[in-house]
């Protein structure tokens, strides 16, 4: 068994809990044993966080996310979105022994000059790796 086969075998025993507003790409999904997405109720709450939300409200929401991850038997968690929520959800998850990860990407930019002199800029993001946060 080569190193990539060993890495894939290890990854398939790991369970990723995902809390973000969009779906993972096929590249990001590859290698995980199980991927569980946050409940629809929490997804709705996390996608519409008010700028007037208080820190205690954000911490409560972060605790609820981690509770779902624990119930899902997550070994890893990805929380993306509002920065304060990300911080507190990851801190709580880390304290509970869940490995916090982020997807790293490479951005390829193409600029196309239009006949009228304007420029259309297209950015394509490609998954590179999963990076542990702590």
Q: State the CATH class.
A: Alpha Beta
Low-confidence stretches: none
DSSP summary, beta strand count: 5
Structural class comes to: alpha/beta
Indicate the overall shape. Answer: globular
Radius of gyration: 18 Å
- Going across the major beta sheet, what is the strand order? 2-1-3-4-5
Beta-strand residue fraction:
25-35%
Helix content: 25-40%
Count of the domains: 1
Determine the mean pLDDT: 91
Please summarize the sheet with the most strands: 5 strands, mixed
N-to-C order of helices and strands: HEHEHHEHEE
First-last Cα distance: 29 Å
Which CATH architecture is right?
3-Layer(aba) Sandwich
The DSSP helix count reads 5
The CATH topology corresponds to Rossmann fold
Defining key terms:
about 130 residues, 5-stranded mixed sheet, alpha/beta, about 30% strand
Structure description:
The chain has 134 residues and is α/β, with parallel strands linked by helices. It contains five helices and five strands. It has helices at 3-11, 26-29, 40-47, 55-71, 83-95, and strands at residues 15-19, 34-37, 76-79, 99-113, 119-132. A hairpin with a 5-residue loop joins β4 (99-113) and β5. α4 packs across α5. It is globular, with a radius of gyration of 18 Å. The chain starts with a helix and ends with a strand.
Produce a short descriptive summary.
It is built from five helices and five strands; from the N terminus they run αβαβααβαββ.
């Amino acid at each position: 068994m080569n190193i990539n086969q060993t890495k894939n075998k290890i990854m398939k025993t790991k369970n990723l809990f995902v809390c973000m507003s969009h779906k993972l790409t096929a590249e990001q999904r590859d290698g995980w044993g199980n991927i569980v997405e946050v409940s629809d109720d929490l997804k709705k709450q996390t996608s519409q966080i008010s700028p007037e939300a208080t820190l205690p409200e954000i911490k409560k929401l972060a605790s609820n996310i981690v509770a779902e991850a624990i119930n899902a038997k997550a070994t890893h968690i990805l929380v993306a979105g509002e920065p304060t929520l990300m911080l507190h959800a990851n801190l709580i998850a880390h304290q509970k022994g869940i490995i916090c990860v982020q997807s790293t990407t490479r951005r390829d930019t193409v600029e196309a000059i239009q006949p009228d002199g304007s420029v259309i800029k297209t950015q394509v993001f490609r998954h590179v790796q999963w990076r542990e946060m702590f």
